[in-house]
């Protein structure tokens, strides 16, 4: 997004800065973390920081871009080999559940970020909306292969199940949250796959 050295291999310092900031932003929030903390943890100079990221906002956008690419990669892995759409949706759901069960899970990075950037015109807010639109479109496309006329409401239902699981997964027993989420997805898939009355 804001890579100053686009087309070149990212420097080790840039990777360290972004990796450090991403971990802190996800674990502690974005606004609560200052540049000085990131510089200290990444062990880079202020000059190095500003050479790669003209502002903290550029770093935040790079963080969100990295999360976006990671989730896209998970979805691509779930649909690799073009499984039947129901199996692809199950694989995406399982990937979401694995994330919720992972150590250090703190909810959805995008929902967390948008809570800190409520202004719809802010680039971070727009990055969140862009990601969510891509995810909804992807899920809608898969449901359209199951039952075209009900694809959009089914996809919105899926995304709401996912959002609820991501929010609850860092507050309650993640295994129970995942079990509830996956059961909800199965119910949705069954209703979409059931023969429709003529």
Automatic annotation (TrEMBL):
Domain HTH tetR-type, chain residue ranges per copy: 11-71
DNA-binding region: 34-53
A GO MF label: DNA binding
Name of the protein in its database record: TetR family transcriptional regulator
Keyword Transcription carried by entry: yes
Keyword vocabulary terms for this entry: DNA-binding, Transcription, Transcription regulation
Organism from which the protein derives: Actinokineospora bangkokensis
